[in-house]
Every structure is written in C-alpha cells, then in structure tokens.
Design goal:
This protein is of the alpha/beta class. It has helices spanning 10-20, 33-42, 55-60, 76-88, 126-139, 175-178, 219-225, 243-254, 268-277, 291-296, 312-324, 337-343, 354-366, 400-403, 446-451, and strands spanning 2-6, 25-30, 46-49, 68-71, 94-98, 122-124, 143-149, 154-160, 184-191, 194-196, 209-215, 235-239, 260-265, 282-285, 304-307, 329-333, 350-352, 371-377, 382-388, 409-416, 419-421, 434-440. It has 15 helices and 22 strands. It has a six-stranded parallel beta sheet with strand order 3-2-1-4-5-6, sandwiched between helices. It has a six-stranded parallel beta sheet with strand order 14-13-12-15-16-17, sandwiched between helices. The chain has a five-stranded antiparallel beta sheet with strand order 7-8-11-9-10. The chain is globular.
C-alpha cells in the first residue's frame, strides 16, 4: 500500500506515524526542509522537499504508483490542486483533502468535487469536526471526551476521577461485583501524562483521566460513578467567532436542548458577520481578556465557556479568567501539544486538540472492509476500532476469557441485533456482531488476527 502525504505539519506527521507503523509505504512532501528533516529523523518514511501541487514534485514522490494521496498542507488551494494533479496526471485512485474555508464547503457547490471537476473523494473540514466534538461535550456534562459508536448506541467517554469517585483505590477486577449496575469497560488510564491499558489489578486515583465504553443511554449514570453529577450547561459563552466558533454557535442554535449562547469576537468585521449570520446568539465585539467585556457577557452567571480563538495563549488565559469568575466548566482549544498537556494542571477542565480530531477523521476514511470507524486516542496512545466479527475470526464462538486477548487489546462493547452487550469474561462473540475494541499502539497489528480482517486501506 503506497500513500503520498502532502504536508509535514502536525497532522501530516501524525498520519504518517500511524500508517508507517502498519507497514504502509509512505512518502511525505513539504516545502519546508526543517519539517522534512524532522520527519526523516523520527519516522521510517520517504520524504521530498517541494511544492505539493507541482507535477514534478508529485512525480518525484512516486505519485504514478501511489494508491492514495492525503493533502493536508496549510493551504486549501494547494490541497485541492494536488488532488487534481494526482488524478489527472497520475491516476491516483483515492484523494483526501483537508479544506478549511467555509466558502468551499457550501452544499450549493457540492458538484465542484465530482470526478469531472475537482476530483476529491473525501473532504475533511477540521473546523466542522471540532465544532461537532465540542457540541458532544456540551451535551454530556462532566465528560472530557465523547465519541459515538455503532450508530450512537455505544459511546467512548473520557472522565476525570474526582475525589468523590466511589471506585477509587479499588482493583478494577472487583468493580463488576461491587457495582453490578456499572455497565462499563475501562480502556485506558492517564496519570501524570502517562497512558496505559489497565489490568484487573490496577486502581484509579483522584485526578486520573479515564477512558471507558458505556451504553449511550447509561452515560450519565456512568459519569456519576466517577463523581460527576453535573447539570446540563445551558448558559454558554464562546470566545472566538472564527469558523469553529461560528459553526459551534449554529450547532447550539439548532440543538434540541435549549442553549443560551453568547459569542465574543475581537475583530469588528468578523463580529458583524457573525451577528448577521446567527439568529439567536448574542454577539459581542471585544476582547475575551477584557474584564468589562466578560461582565457584559454575563460571565458570573455562565455555566461553560468555550475558548476557540486562533491563539492558544488567549484561549488558556481567557479560560482561566472565566474560571476565576466562577464558571464551572472551561473547554479550551490548543494546537500546541505541550499546551494540551499543561492545561489540566492549570485547572482548565477540557483541552480540545484539532490535530487529534483531524487525524481520527482521516483514519476513519482510509480504512476499508469490515472496519467501520477508527479513532486515535491521546496522542498516539492507541486506536478505538469498530469492526464486524467474521465467521473466520478466532474470537467467534469463544468466551472472552478463553479467547485470551493479547495484552494491550480490550473488548469494549458488542452490538448484536441492535442490542448492546457490555462484555464480561463469559461473554461469547458471535459471527456478525459489531464489536468495539481498543488496541494500544504496540498491539494494533494483533487486531488483524483476532478479527480475521486486514487493517489495510482503500
């Protein structure tokens, strides 16, 4: 499998890292020699310095034998032209492009991306994906992360274990006996920036970030066990009226839950545009770091702030100011990995990383066969995979206990005939089951054998 990645930034680097780990033949193209050197030093991939949309560069990178092109340079137009050149000159079968500008994404221009015009098979909009992710967080008070699976019958939920959590300092193997109503499978624990797949002997400590699988209908009950019985945050203030802020505000206006939203935007023209575009959201022109502007937005009676300006530093400082004014929950966008690891120590509740969200979205579109979705978790910690169990799988017909899952692989949920089964040791997987499992970075290859399916591409 040959994949050509245009763009060696954070997203391109991480896609190359994931795919190279699964023995794909990867070539990365970027105009910046420093990024190419970094990727050559850290990954087992080929790399070419050059303009991603130039035919000569793509030819040098091996486009004439590539199975897929993924264009994630910082410029929409470069990504689009790279797909066009790859299609017209090199007959690359599958083209994926990241497109940020909303003017390109309007439904009225959908025909632009047909094979006769600009042939892009999959368009990824990071702004849209981030807005959707934040919307899910607002729907689930107390959660650090929410990923719907199996047509939203099952969810992966991230939560921070509070001091009120009744299952602290309890070996995980005892949870089902002590709390029989607790229908969850804990997939990962993060403590002091170290992530691992827990065993039955592991215990949770206050401040741990825990990822678990639960039936969607039981999400709030599960969060309560981790010490989170938060009420819905109906009063929301959004810092930043860019593409993400505008998309989020529209989501909340159209949401069946009643959100009372305000948006603060520093740029006067952008604030005016947001005010004309939105119907019920109150738009305030001003600086989110200005105490008077925060007071005008009613920050003291706000439940949640969402800081999604184009400045990580502004997002962090504005979130801290909001928390100081008594806001219960701060959701903060950070692009820099070091900041993402820092914010939880500062008292900010949730960090949103567009890079991780974009990488997960792209991985979902490059899988094939019986793999329905893939989600990358916590900076390369592992992947959450939703797949069909085939008759040829060595898991089918065996109890989970007798199947002896490899270390680093956990079965999180089974959906059979529309019903959700949270697996225990005596649960048996049947052919045709939709299965949700987690594999850490060292164990992803083992999933192929377990489910008799190649985790390959296109």
């Amino acid at each position: 499998m040959r994949v050509l990645i245009c763009g060696a930034g954070q997203v391109g680097f991480n896609i190359a890292r994931y795919l190279a780990a699964e023995d794909a033949d990867i070539t990365v193209v970027d105009r910046r020699p420093d990024l190419i050197r970094k990727i050559q030093d850290q990954l087992d991939v080929q790399a070419v310095v050059g303009h991603a949309a130039h035919p000569a560069t793509l030819e040098q990178a091996g486009a004439n034998t590539a199975d897929m092109l993924i264009a994630v340079t910082p410029t929409d137009e470069v990504n689009m032209v790279a797909c066009q050149v790859a299609h017209s000159l090199f007959k690359v079968p599958t083209k994926i492009a990241r497109v940020r500008s909303q003017s390109y994404l309007s439904p009225i221009w959908a025909d632009l991306y047909s094979r006769e015009n600009v042939p892009i098979d999959v368009i990824i909009s990071p702004e849209y994906e981030v807005a959707q992710s934040v919307t899910r967080l607002l729907e689930v008070p107390g959660a650090l992360d929410v990923i719907p699976l199996c047509d939203d019958k099952v969810r992966l939920v991230g939560a921070r274990a509070s001091s009120k959590c009744p299952i602290l300092n309890t070996p995980l193997r005892q949870l089902s006996q002590l709390f029989p109503e607790l229908s969850i499978v804990i997939l990962g624990i993060i403590r002091d920036d170290k992530a691992w797949v827990p065993t039955g002997d592991d215990i949770m400590q206050p401040g741990d970030d825990v990822y678990f699988i639960t039936e969607t209908a039981k999400t709030q009950r599960a969060l309560a066990v981790f010490g989170h019985e938060d009420q819905l945050s109906s009063r929301v203030v959004i810092f930043g009226g860019g593409n993400i802020g505008l998309a989020l505000a529209k989501n909340l206006e159209d949401h069946p839950l009643s959100f009372n939203s305000k948006l603060i935007e520093m740029d006067e023209d952008r604030a005016e545009y947001a005010a004309k575009t939105l119907s019920s959201t109150v738009v305030i022109h001003g600086d989110a770091l200005d105490a008077d502007i925060l007071e005008e937005a009613g920050i003291k009676t706000t439940d949640t702030v969402v800081a999604i300006t184009d400045s990580d530093e502004t997002n962090i400082l504005a979130s801290l100011l909001a928390k100081r004014h008594g806001v219960k929950r701060a959701i903060t966008l950070t692009n820099k990995p070091d900041y993402s690891r820092l914010v939880s120590h500062l008292g900010i509740d949730t960090a949103i990383n567009p890079r991780d969200i974009t990488v997960s979205t792209i991985l979902q579109h490059v899988r094939r066969g019986r793999i329905h979705s893939v989600h990358a978790l916590h900076e390369g910690f592992g992947e959450l995979i939703e797949a069909d169990a085939l008759e040829t799988s060595e898991l089918v017909g065996k109890s989970i206990k007798s199947a002896s899952l490899p270390h680093g692989v956990l079965l999180g949920a089974i959906v059979r005939d529309g019903a959700v089964i949270i697996p225990r040791g005596n649960t048996t997987v049947q052919a045709g089951d939709r299965v949700v499992l987690f594999a850490d970075a060292d164990s992803i290859r083992k999933v192929e054998k377990l489910f008799a399916v190649r985790l390959t591409y296109i």
